[in-house]
Design brief:
Length: 582
């Protein structure tokens, strides 16, 4: 996403335009990619800078959470004393900041979208709380900033489309059902624009998910059974936020098959009870109603109503943890102010602070431990497989780690386990085909590739691997046909031209190889491989030393940052010049 992404290497207007262009089959999160490009401008490929950016956005998010909690407490707890709202915000925001469930969102650089979305989402919510109490131009300014902030949140991660629903939950809690319609009539234009923005990006999100193969078959085979599975996902997310101590990069939800049974009946019953309790408390205390429904709304994109590949992940509750922190803040504030005739007047003040510090330190300790798990891919997925051995995701990615390490037997074991758990996991089948090919089992490799292609017929990486398979089997025409087809459908197929050039080189069609490599070079002038390969062809195949030197020198000139490769090319040129002198 960063190291191999050419879009992060430039901040010129043309490249920024490409970042904000919706490409078929790709996720649409341009603010995330733009943030990587800004990081690259300052840090190039030093990961420290990227982690600093993640932490800075998380700090900003925690500050906005503090400000939002204070205003939220003021509007929903009108009977509380003024200093109580500040304490709720302090208690809640500190627990939000230290919660170990956020490690994935902050530590994993690919999850930059979470801290970006979180900052802009909560900034929009804070600005809304401020703006709804304003008048005239001040109100218009605030509401305009809300719309701009939520647009940035959605462009960071499309799941932010639920923002208008979150506002409606707040207004129901604040206004009551009877006064809600009057409020909506007053602010109809603002809500109409915010809902329109959400609808547009909901359409884009569904389109992107379908094109990228992100929408999976219904779990259990029907929409009804899939809906029942959603109750499992909902309750497990509550458990993840409130009771889980063994956090992981992948989880297993034990869903019975068939789905209808006593356990499912209990899960559905608990879900309905929680919804009923939240509506019942609306008249008595607005805070539980808001917190529960806000948590539910922010989880909606992840409840697998539209089935996704992952049912449960730490990052899914990033926004929802705001509600949990709000309730904890209220709980500690109430305990701090609690009085009982059997205890001294100030007994509960130090007790509440001591209990709060115990939880805060416990969360901090778990956060530090979980950061160690995220040290590298091996520690991450080894931990996940150990904690959740039946997780398809953990096994699939542990297999990828072993692939990268060249431990093919271990890779096969985990990839086969992943497919056994989730037969439609086309990416694991694709990876398994690569390993089978390396192990000299072409029959198994071909079967896995064809199955993967059947499951994901529009997936280009599978087609590229199929082209590589045909190339290894010396079926050059089939390999060429696949690459030409892929080039015809891509707007900027630099890598594909490079692959086709290397195929022609192997076939002995050197003029065609040079033509394709030049096209790759023109599309991506700051990638050194095409220069080097053209030079190699002129040197070893066409015996043209001058042209070989020319392309080696061109590569050094255009890609000076590829230091080790540049050094190798300098030695090559030096050897050629020494040969000329002889």
């Amino acid at each position: 996403m960063i190291y191999g992404n050419s879009q992060v290497r430039s901040l010129n207007w043309g490249n920024i335009g490409r970042i904000f262009t919706l490409d078929k089959g790709n996720t649409y999160q341009p603010i995330r990619i733009l943030s990587y490009a800004i990081d690259y401008y300052f840090w190039e490929l030093n990961p420290v800078g990227y982690h600093i950016t993640n932490i800075l956005f998380y700090i900003l998010t925690c500050i906005v959470v503090f400000l939002s909690l204070r205003l939220l407490s003021t509007s929903l707890r009108d009977q509380a004393s003024p200093d109580s709202h500040g304490q709720v915000a302090i208690f809640g925001s500190l627990l939000f900041a230290a919660h170990p469930v956020h490690v994935e969102a902050v530590t994993w650089l690919a999850a930059r979208k979470e801290v970006l979305q979180g900052f802009f989402f909560f900034l929009a919510f804070y600005l809304y709380l401020k703006g709804r109490e304003g008048e005239g131009r001040k109100k218009i300014l605030y509401f305009g900033l809300v719309l701009f902030s939520i647009l940035l949140a959605i462009l960071s991660k499309p799941a932010a489309i639920v923002f208008p629903a979150g506002l409606l939950v707040y207004e129901i809690a604040c206004q009551g059902k009877n006064r809600l319609m009057d409020f909506l009539k007053k602010y109809w234009l603002f809500f109409a624009i915010s809902i329109l923005i959400s609808m547009i990006f909901t359409f884009i999100l569904i389109k992107v998910m379908i094109e990228a193969g992100g929408v999976k078959p219904y779990r259990g085979g029907t929409f009804f059974s899939n809906l029942l599975v959603s109750t499992y996902a909902f309750l497990y997310n509550i458990k993840l936020l409130t009771f889980t101590t063994h956090y992981s990069a992948a989880y297993t939800i034990d869903v019975p098959n068939p789905i209808l049974g006593l356990r499912t009946f209990i899960f559905v019953g608990i879900t309905f009870f929680l919804f009923g309790l939240s509506f019942w408390t609306l008249k008595k205390t607005k805070t539980f109603f808001f917190s529960f429904l806000f948590f539910f709304v922010t989880l909606l994109p992840y409840l697998n109503i539209i089935p996704l590949s992952t049912l449960l992940a730490d990052r899914y509750v990033f926004l929802g943890s705001f509600s949990y922190s709000f309730l904890l803040g209220i709980g500690f504030d109430n305990l701090y102010r609690f009085r009982n005739k059997f205890f001294s007047e100030d007994f509960f003040k130090p007790f509440s602070v001591a209990l709060f510090l115990f939880i805060l330190i416990s969360y901090s300790f778990m956060t530090v431990q979980q950061n160690r798990v995220w040290k590298n891919s091996y520690t991450l997925w080894a931990d996940a497989v150990e904690k959740y051995p039946e997780s398809d995701t953990a096994n699939a990615l542990m297999g990828v780690v072993y692939m990268d390490l060249g431990m093919d037997q271990e890779a096969v074991r985990h990839l086969e386990k992943a497919i056994q758990i989730l037969p439609y996991d086309y990416q694991s089948r694709n990876n398994l085909a690569i390993v089978y090919g390396r192990m000299g089992e072409p029959g198994k490799a071909f079967n896995e590739l064809m199955t993967a292609l059947h499951l994901a017929p529009d997936n280009d990486s599978i087609k590229i691997n199929l082209s590589v398979f045909y190339q290894r089997q010396k079926e050059y025409e089939k390999s060429e046909g696949i690459l030409k087809y892929l080039i015809s459908k891509h707007q900027s197929p630099g890598q594909l031209h490079f692959r086709l050039g290397m195929l022609y080189k192997e076939m002995g069609r050197y003029d065609d190889a040079i033509a394709q490599l030049r096209k790759s070079m023109e599309l991506f002038p700051h990638i050194i491989n095409p220069y080097e390969e053209i030079g190699n062809i002129y040197l070893s195949k066409l015996k043209d030393l001058e042209k070989a030197k020319f392309y080696y020198m061109k590569g050094i000139e255009m890609v000076p940052q590829a230091k080790s490769r540049v050094e190798e090319l300098r030695w090559m040129i030096q050897d050629l010049e020494a040969y000329d002198k002889r």
